[in-house]
Amino acid sequence: MVILTAEPLDVNALISSVRGPDCGAVVCFLGCVRRDKEGSSEVTALEYEAQPRMAQEAMERIAGQSGSGTVRLSIAHRTGRLEAGEISAVIVAASPHRAEAFEACRSALEQLKESVPIWKKMHFSSGESRWAEGKPLA
Amino acid sequence: MRLTVSLFGSLRDRFGKGASVQMEVGPGIRLREALRKFEGEQGALGADVAVALNGSLTRADPELADGDEILLLPPVSGG
Questions:
Q1: Is the CB of B79 less than 8 angstroms away from the CB of A89?
Q2: A96 CA: distance to closest CA in chain B (Å)
Q3: Residue A38 confidence class, pLDDT cut points 50, 70, 90
Q4: Which of A21, A133, B19, B62 is the least crowded, having the fewest Cβ atoms under 10 Å away?
């Protein structure tokens, strides 16, 4: 399951989409908006923007490259404005054994951060805002 | 013919534009020449900006057609 949406992410639905009687391990990563401090100001919200078609396709590629073939992956990412503490991304990996599930989850997250056209703007308590530095699209 | 240049993330703020810019170009223009024209009119793009044509990343230099969309994608920061 691959989801790019402005709506809150349903973590349980994503877990259910990969788990099954063949999987002894399910690893779930939640990316959350962190209230970073910068001087006397702090991040109050992040605003996510995506190129929807390319982001969906890139996430589907990541989900399809699930290592050994015994891993099932679901990936979801939100767009729009999220307040500190809200869930921005979910990656769920299920496999017969834990090592593959941990590895697939971590690998998918790293790929998500460098190969999916999504950008975030940081909004600060001072009222200022600026785009986060990112990684050149691979 | 007319091209659409779509801007994302920091590029939109940097160029002070909306989500896209329309460009009038001559027939037979190639992608890299169109990008140089854009840079000449709007300002330089960094080497870290990825380019997509009609939704597909490309490093090639294809000939463009009327209605093509060039997407300028700055470094990404999802997650």
A1: yes
A2: 26
A3: confident
A4: A21
